[in-house]
Amino acid sequence: MKIPGFFGGPQQCSLLQRSWLSFLLVLAFSQAGVAQDAGFSMPDTICEDQPVIITNVQPPSASTYQWSFCSGNASYEPDGFNMSNPNQLLNSPRFITLVKDSLEYYTFTTSTGNAKVVRCFFGTSLTSFPTGITDLGNFNVLSDQVRGIQVKKDNGTWYGFVADGNKLVILNFGNSPNNTPVSKVFSMPNVTLASGLAFNKQGTNWVGFVTDLAANKVFRLDFGTSLGNNPAVAALTGTVFPLNSPASIILASEAGAWSAFVCNIGNSTLTRMDFGTSLMNPVISWADFNNINGLNLNAGLTLINDCDGLNGYVTNCVKEADLCIIHLEFKLGLRGSITGYHIQNNGILNKPYGISEFVRQGGTLYAFVANYGSSSITRMFFPSCSGASLPFYTGPDPPPFTYADPGNYNILLTVDDGSASQSSKCKNIVVMPKPVLSLGPDLVVCEGKNTKLDAGAGNSHYYWSNGATTRTIPVDTSGTYWVRTVNNWHCESMDTIMVTVKNNTETLVDTTLCKGLAYPAQNGMQTVPGIYRDTLRMASGCDSIVKTNLQFNDCPLLIWFPNAFTPNGDGLNDLFRPVGNEIGKYNLQIYDRWGTLIFESNNVADGWDGSVKGREAEPDVYTYNATYESRLFPGDTHRATGTFTLAR
User: Is residue 535 left, alpha or beta, with left meaning phi > 0 and alpha meaning psi from -120 to 50?
Assistant: First the structure.
């Protein structure tokens, strides 16, 4: 691009012009070569079923975005799966390390029983068995004292480091950990029995640490600016700190200050050594943790600073039936007290010794354990949960999503996955429970009955549709009512109910019988004309009043239709049918109060059992319509209509 006034003439650029040119060049190189860390903004606390809105996603322009909204959480208990002995190459394995190269994963395990290193290649998925298993051998130098192992990448080259007695075997894999390495032996002065290894790049320099199982010491390895250099070896100096057969060592930092944690297999304790702002400093303070519940010959240690804070896992080198894995909680931070509790032996652990670093793939956290007792490998994993309405997303701006249940959830963003600029950010979100609220099913309320709606206890605020702010409200009017409740976490719930107030009904029934018959009314069989009053309880619970105007006539044909029956299965009045003598041709039809035909019969012996299409009919007043002839006078048709009451 040609910029007017800067190029095109023989004269030199002015100072202002050179300044602008420098700015443009710096800006161009900044945009092209500086990777921006992943990040985003979101609430740290939210209510269940409330939309989570993520904003300010960084970097605003990346090649790929991978979101997991229900990522595995290291503060919970892991699952485990024993992968047995890969190709039967392991014999009493000690330490194991897990590395990722681009999108592919490897484990490297030291095997003391046959003095070798075994590499497992998992391809792009840690959920499967390894697709490639390689016996890297003993490099003509390893002995039965082989212990710790670390594999690191430095400036495009992969290096492996194996602790064996007083030796550090350095492996050069070239541009891939899948290559056959070239080995060299570096003797570590004053080291007797090297065990655990830990490495970290601080600034431009690589610093390593190795524990001495026999001498009860920790040595610093100063590689300078390249892991290809032979390190300078020196025992840690500074404040005197207690060690007892130190096995594993792990590095961690908090607020710019570094610490190292050491597993003391000799007395089942942990030791923390503090270095301040630089791993090259002498030890400035220490802490001995000799009261962590469950530690027993603890050998392996790994830490992960997950979304929910710092968590650790310690292996106890004991038999399978014992407490093999201890979860460490750092509730007060890296340099606070430590609480330990054992977790279930998921994965058939048997004298577990070394435990690898944690790696997150997708929404799941993985680590691997070397089982010294069974010569096997166990895969530990913290699976992703299923509580998010949107578990995964691939895009820069995720849509709002919700969590259906309260709890702690991890939200993980990975940008530019598999490239040199890959970056991840994990944040924890606490989902608070919303109030438990149910006004129940819709109500039918009888006129004059006292009824109230109850929104339940345990909430801080209540807001009803009628303006009330109490837990309960009285109801005596038909309508739709709703309530919104708020609990102590400021979470809300809402429910609606429809209330129908039914008036009590009263029906007058005219009934005429033949003299000499009796009618069931008012708790008795009535033979005297008059008005009788009965109360029926409907399915709604409301009362229906039936008043019967009972009259008697002389009847030329003795047939009588009852005005009530009770189909309750007691053997009395269970069917509605007429009673008469010498009935010939006959038809009976029964209708409900809306005029719907619900029963018909041509046989006087057949009666209605009080059901409609297999279901019990509502207690109510029904109408009958009958035609019939006397056998003595065929062709002389009579008609009878009237009403009757079904009572239960």
Answer: beta
pLDDT of residue 3: 28
Res. 348: pLDDT tops 50: yes
**Mean pLDDT, residues 260-278 taken together:** 96
For 455: left if phi > 0, alpha if psi spans -120 to 50, otherwise beta; the answer is: alpha
Q: Which two tokens stand for residue 406?
A: 């309260």
User: What secondary structure letter does DSSP report for 194?
Assistant: E
d(C-alpha 615, C-alpha 601), whole Å: 19
Which value, to the nearest 10 degrees, does the dihedral of the CA atoms of residues 591, 594, 596, 598 take?
-50
pLDDT of residue 9: 33
**Angle at 543 (CA atoms; ends 537, 547), nearest 5 degrees:** 100
In the chain, how long is the greatest CA-to-CA distance? Answer: 140
β-pairing, 443-446 vs 492-502, is parallel
Q: CA–CA separation, 178 vs 132, rounded Å?
A: 9
- What span, in angstroms and rounded, lies between the C-alpha atoms of 351 and 82? 13
Q: What are the residues whose beta carbons fall under 8 Å from the beta carbon of 232, sequence distance 6 or more?
A: 221, 222
Out of 2.30.30.100, 2.120.10.30, 2.60.120.10, 3.40.50.720, the CATH code matching 73-382 is 2.120.10.30
CB atoms within 10 A of CB 547: 15
Higher pLDDT, 574 or 634: 574
CATH 2.120.10.30 residue spans of the chain: 73-382
CATH code at 36-70+389-432: 2.60.40.10
Residue 429 has pLDDT above 80, yes or no: yes
Q: pLDDT band for 512, please (50, 70, 90 cuts).
A: confident
SS (H, E, C) 28-42: HHHHHHCCCCCEEEC
| CA dist., res. 212 & res. 221, Å (int) | 13
Give residue-wise pLDDT tens across range 446-491: 777 778 999 999 899 999 999 999 999 999 889 999 999 999 989 9
Closest to 187 measured CA to CA, from 141, 139, 240, 242: 141
Tokens encoding 624:
């009958």
CB half-sphere exposure, 554, CA atoms < 13 A:
1
Would you give the DSSP letter of residue 460? S
Query: Percent of the chain beyond pLDDT 90?
Result: 60
Domain with CATH 2.60.40.10 in the chain: 36-70+389-432
pLDDT tens string 112-160: 999 999 999 999 999 989 999 999 999 999 999 999 999 999 999 999 9
In a 3-state reduction of DSSP, which class is residue 495? Answer: strand
Average pLDDT of the chain, as a whole number: 87
30 burial level (CB within 10 Å; 0-12, 13-18, 19+): exposed
Beta-carbon contacts of residue 444 (< 8 Å; ≥ 6 apart) = 500, 502, 540, 541, 542
The band of 182, judged by pLDDT with boundaries at 50, 70 and 90, is very high
Return the pLDDT at 238. 86
Residue 124 identity? T
Q: What angle do CA 588, 591, 594 make, to 5 degrees?
A: 165
